[in-house]
Amino acid sequence: MKNRLLLAGLLGLAFSSLSAQYWQVEYLNANINPGELNIDDEYPVGGGLAATWTTLLGPSASPAWSATTNLPFAFNFNGSPVTSFKASNSAVVTFDVATALAAPAFTSVALPAATVPDKSVCILGIKGTGTNDNVVTKTFGTAPNRQFWITFSSYSNATANNYFYFSIVLEETTNRIYVVDQRANGTATNSIGIQVDATTAYSLAGSPNVGAYAGTSPTPNDNTYYVFNPGAQPAFDMAATAITTKKYILPGNTNITGTIRNLGTTTITSATLNYTIDGGAVQTAALTGLNIASLASYNFTHSVPWNATSGTHLVDVYATNLNGSNPDINPTDDHKLKNIYVMSSNQPRIPLFEVFTSSTCAPCNPGNANYHSVVDPKPAAEYVSIKFQQNFPGTGDPYATTEAINRRSAFYGINSIPRMEIDGGWDQNASSFTTALYNSAKTNPSQYMMSGNYALNGQTIEGKVKFNPLITIDGAKLHIAVLEKQTTGNVKSNGETEFFHVMKKMIPSETGTEITPTLGVWDSLSFSYTFNGNYRLPADGATANIINHTIEHSVEDFQNLYVVAWVQGSDKVVYQAANLNSPTTGIADVSGIMSEVAVYPNPTTDIINVQVEMKNADNVLATLIDMNGQVVESTTHKMNTGKNKLTFNVSNLATGIYNVLLFDSKQNVSIHEVIVAH
What we know:
single chain, mainly beta, Immunoglobulin-like, 3 helices
């Protein structure tokens, strides 16, 4: 949707003289919000994040103004201070709060327009008339670098089925005005610009027919935004706009890559590209033979690699010596900063695939079919799969739960299905999932080591999750979910007759448990949950019918339950996931020859002791494998009746999770997970 040619005169000024009070820059495919202060992105209708926003104006069938509202910080419009504003549900913000004009109509008109008050910022062409259409506000950041967001949430155009999320953002100190195109599922023809008075306006090229170019993601990862800068465009202004080096990397030589953009009027033919790590020595590279026109961008790879070491590091990129020795006139946008986390070791990743679906959702059937065509041929131990059944469309899935709904709406801010998340990042329809995406998820380095086990006794499930961080980062939470491998009771209208990996309960809830582990040290969390009461099949997913976990459950077969866990950061990145082990996979073999097996110490640093009690003498093959299924060591031992002991020397093995497999002569197997931690 965003792949388009720049409009003729892109970023041009409505008035081209250097005396213009605003000049514009367009950030197509920015995939971030300005200043990266707002990572929540949209106002989540009905979600938990809604409480952190202030509702200024609700929906109205006809154009209407909000009440006058004070700004949270000092701000200049067109060079003069303003202290308050009001907004309309036709997407106009005006600082002329005493205007006698009615709120502008729900139409896109060229600026300046007689129907628009003086001192206004406009996104004309969208309207807030629907049930969930609100104007909401929120302040981000800390003084003197705050942003005040005025968001037009869930708006539409003439086609009622379309929705749009746009924001007008005021920035403290710089007095910049941003228009952020956050989310769209249709086409729009907008008039985006600033009207100073009845004769003076600064509009985006293409107005009054500017389209909406964001995708459907509720995160900033597909956003476009526009900047209205006060004053005249400077001759020399080079901004560092992106550092594209991955956020999570492994130790060793790493290229610093990114983008710089020429915001000045002068074409740049040479510059010095610089970066520092944690404020240390400046690494420089001379860039020659350039031809970066005004408002054009340049993608770079710095010629001096960074020898990254374990830990959290702040990377700072900036350009100097423009066209020889010219200084940058606007230093406020020179530097781009990014925290990069370097893992202490390379551990295999178990990706987390979350699918939000419903048996009443027609597109969910092909979405699930495509998803399973990718994952089902893969070894089940390679990934963690969860289906969160939802309470819509229509009457919704009978196995929808409050926890599943909140995971979708309050946590991810998703309001449509089918949707799929890969490790909390990739956010698309499950029909778009591919083997290439699966393989890419597997190759990402993990930020944690994880393992765990569980046991089922009647309707009680209990166990322990072990975890060890490979990075130091605050705000991580451990999530535990009980899943049912296959269900059939929730068949409804979309043609699906079987449902897999259905989430039945999150422990303790969908909010998870905050953990504060120590880098390189194994920690653990024990859990226990009892499914209360008896089975009930709800009629549908309506709120009144949803399972009440305090008195009932919807588990079809308790022997079909299993447990998964994952660690997720405050940025929604999943650091690692795990399928927990059940005692039935290895404490005692089915033949009964090995009556008791003990593996210790666990975790270990050098030696694994394996004590086996035999009912009868037999030859036992003892095999140690790593998480990739590769055999590390395999030997056969003749074991006598009674207690026997063998050892594995793991002092030279990499830190990680391994499995000890014991096979008797009849190929009965006992499996035991062990952690090697140096």
